[in-house]
């Protein structure tokens, strides 16, 4: 596929098959994150441990329910809702609490997402896993992830083979947000 075809084919996948992601392909996918433009440090953490993914999922779900954000509270109240969508791989992108971590990690995330799409994997860009790090479990989780000192998760990506979605999201709108100045 051309880069334009990959971008066109990319979509947010919110259901995954219970299949492992091929190790060689996974390494190839996450390495692309290091090739992104950057203006500072960031860390890519690839989580395949099902128990740790489940723990982050459950803490994120609790964070959603207690967020005070109407959308998150409503989404979290859907029976069977799982914020990490049972993905076999969770990639967390972390950065220092100060600086441009949100920008650096978003750029790296896009590379990872496009590479995964090219190799036939579904992905979804996530911010909800960061809610798992707001409560009393924060320090233990940060230690478990073995992040550099002062780094916190900024966003995440679920990766896996696409399953059948049970919770429908509205279709993406074709946003008219481009203007040309000549």
UniProtKB/TrEMBL annotation:
InterPro entries: Nitroreductase (IPR029479), Nitroreductase-like (IPR000415). One of its GO terms (molecular function) is FMN reductase [NAD(P)H] activity. Its cofactor is FMN. SUPFAM superfamilies: FMN-dependent nitroreductase-like (SSF55469). Pfam families: Nitroreductase. Coiled coil: none annotated. The keyword Oxidoreductase applies. It is an enzyme of class 1 (oxidoreductase). Its EC number is 1.5.1.39. It comes from the Archaea. The keyword Nuclease does not apply. Keywords: Flavoprotein, FMN, Oxidoreductase. Residues 7-160 form the Nitroreductase domain. Signal peptide: none annotated. Belongs to the nitroreductase family. This is FMN reductase. The lineage of its organism: Archaea, Methanobacteriati, Methanobacteriota, Methanomada group, Methanobacteria.
